[in-house]
Amino acid sequence: MLTGDSRPRIVIEWKDLSFDVRSEKNKTRSTKAILKSVSGFGAPGELLAIMGSSGAGKTTLLNLISGRTSVKRNQKLLGSIMLNGKEADFKSIRRFSAYVMQEDVFYESLTPRELITASAMLRLPNTVSAEERNNKIESVITELGLEKVADTVVGGPSFGKRGLSGGEKKRVAIAIELVNDPSILFLDEP
Question: Domain ranges in the chain?
C-alpha cells in the first residue's frame, strides 16, 4: 500500500481513549480524567484539526496518538490506537510519523538551510544519494516559502541577533520534519 513517493499510506484511528492521572496530595488520593472515551481517525491526504478550549486535553490527545507520551505508574490509559486497522504501539506510531512541537527549539546561530540539511543527513536512509538529498532539501525550502530566508540565521535572544519571524521559525520546524517524508505529520498549535 505505497503511494508514488514510496511513503506508506497510513490510516490512524483511536477508539474510546480515556486517560486518567492519579495524584496524592495531603494524604488524599484523587484521580483526574484528562480524556474520556475519545474516538477519531485521520486518513491519508487529509488534514485533521483537533479543536477545543484551553485545558480540554488537545495536547494530551495529540501526544498519545503520536506516541510521544508513555504511560507512567500514576497514569491509566484505556482504549486503542490503530494504524491501518491493526493495534499499534508507541514505537510503531513514531516510525511512520513526525511531530512538530508547540515551541520551536533551534540553534539560533544556524540558518534554515543548515537545520534542514542536518535533519536530512541524520534521518534520510543511506540509500538516498547526495543529489537526491539536496533536491529534497531545496524542494522543502520552496514548498514552505523559505527561499528568501534560507541563508539567514535563525537568531533569537540568546544569540543577541534578531533573525527569523515567528511564522518563519514555525515553517522551519515543519520543514525539518517534512524532509524525512513522514506518512503522518503531527503539529501542536502550528
Answer: 12-100, 112-181
pLDDT for 103-132, tens place per residue? 888 888 899 999 999 999 999 999 999 999
Residue 153 C-alpha cell reads as 540565521
What is 57-90 written as a DSSP string? SHHHHHHHHTT-----TTEEEEEEEEETTEE--H
Beta strands in 110-176 (DSSP E): none
153, 163 Cβ separation under 8 angstroms: yes
SS3 149: helix
Instruction: Give the rounded percent of residues in the chain with a pLDDT score beyond 70.
Output: 96
Q: How far is CA 154 from the centre of its chain?
A: 20
Q: How far apart are CA 11 and CA 9, in angstroms?
A: 7
Q: Measured between alpha carbons, how far is 147 from 153 in angstroms, rounded to an integer?
A: 13
Count of CB atoms within 10 A of residue 131's CB? 8
pTM: 0.84
Q: Which three cell numbers stand for residue 83?
A: 494504524
Pairing, β 184-187 against β 97-100: parallel
Determine how many CB atoms are found less than 10 A away from the CB of residue 103. 8
